[in-house]
Amino acid sequence: MKHLPLVIRSVAAWAITLLIFFPLFWLFLTSFKTELQAISVPPLLTFTPTLENFVEVQVRSDYMLYAKNSLVTSVLSTVLGLLIAAPAAYSMAFFRTRKTRDLLLWMLSTKMMPAVGALVPVYVMAQSSGLLDTLTGLTIVFTMSNLPIMVWMLYSYFKDIPPDILEAARMDGAGIWNEFRYVILPLGMGGLASTGLLCLVLSWNEAFWSLNLSAAKAGTLAALIASYSSPEGLFWAKLSAASLLAIAPIIVFGWFSQKQLVQGLTFGAVK
Amino acid sequence: MKRFLPRALFAPAVISLFLWMIVPLVMTIYFSFVRYNLMQPGDKEWLGLANYHFFVTDPDFGPAISNTLLLLGAVIIITVVFGVLLALLVNDPFPGRGIVRVLLISPFFVMPTVNALLWKHMMMNPIYGVLAQVWIFFGLQPVDWLTDFPLASVITMVAWQWLPFACLIFITSLQSMDRDQLEAAGMDGANALQKFWYLYLPHLARPMAVVIMIEMIFLMSVFAEIFTTTGGGPGNESTNIAFLIFKQALMNFDVGVASAGALFAVLLANVAAVFLIRMIGKNLD
Description:
The complex is a heterodimer of chains A (271) and B (285). By secondary structure, chain A is mainly alpha-helical. Chain A has one domain (62-265): MetI-like fold (Orthogonal Bundle), CATH 1.10.3720. Chain A is 73% helix and 0% strand. Chain A contains 13 helices and no strands. Chain A has helices at 6-30, 35-38, 52-61, 63-94, 100-112, 119-128, 135-158, 163-171, 176-187, 189-205, 208-213, 221-226, 236-265. The relative contact order of chain A is 0.14. With 285 residues, chain B is mainly alpha-helical. Chain B is built from 13 helices and no strands. The radius of gyration of chain B is 24 Å and the shape is globular. Classes of the chains: A mainly alpha (271), B mainly alpha (285). Chains A and B meet through α1, α4, α5, α6 and α7 of A and α1, α3, α4, α5 and α8 of B.
């Protein structure tokens, strides 16, 4: 698009970007308004900001508890997922057999199944094992639902590591542990980081299972926000404040890691 | 030992995933053949195919399928077309390109429930919403989006979330375009359209396949956006398969029928998976 003059290109790009970003900007503004300002017609662009909504959100619905639940479940499911997925991906990338490909595709196909299809059985199992509305239960479910994607991502990173390096390490008598520790880990660090980051984002934002399997004790931020949906149009400022608190950590986190994240999600198919 | 170790390494992943898949599946198959209503506890009487019959002849069934496919198709088309155009627009340097990139990706990190409520209340509300104000500014009658165009509203929300993702993948891919080739084409007098058609588009085929694949995986079962905004309505206008099954299980308390529906969804997912595998075969090796 070098044909367009720089000015037109810049203005167009900025205009479209601001349009796409606008809803988030608006959420940000609304969270600092009073409830009355939030629904004023025409909408207010200038006002004296207030922090009262944030205080209210914490007092009324114990934001910190939900934030802690979100943090614990996403971090634990990421760590657990990496511990299970990394050896699997390593094995598939470096000990390829004819069945490896089928196995990988089968894993991805489990992710295609709508979660709602497994809702009742998973609910019944969680209930009978006492894992309903617990952080352990949610962590397990998050790990399992992210696992196929994690194995795929790690596999696509690992298979780009030249096998010659491994050969050399093996010639020097490195055992499997040393090989993993001194060759795969340093070379695959980027892949492990991207995969971990993505898993963190997916778990943090996961809404289906947390809506259905958790309540007051293990509820995550995604579930907390959904509870604000009922009173039609009455608490926009508080809703905005709660939403802002729920998405701000992960968005800021995403800004710093967007390159790795997006590249990772292409399963190595886009360089 | 040579065969044992690789297997031992992938065993935890394969076994846990297998259990995660097979146990619910077997239970679902069993539930789908019996009378199982949460409001009427008691013996699970054998029903044969009655639950399937009930689910398939439900007047909501046809619309749910077409809504699922419409949602999937519309979001994919919107994100791919606009994603490519936007990526081409921001591909060459201009002031503030780094900030634009960061702002663009933001919606992708917004959780579905926030996305849904943000659009439902602050953007699409027919009285106080920003869109209503814009409509009034241009002298038009404000639209009650979620009531009059429920499916289109849900599509808007989901597309808003996934457009940044598609766009960023295309941007990444464009960066590896062969500059010399583009210059040579320019010297030979190729115009912008020809360059797009013969150079850019073939280069973008692979990332397009990736975007379509990832979006299919995540969009087959859009749930939270519908749950928090329209509740599938009005009527069944924004009910997709995932939401219909949810409705049967937790609003009608009929686990039997919901299970029959779930198996139907599994079938649908498998059809999509076969389609995907063909695509992956070409593009992901």
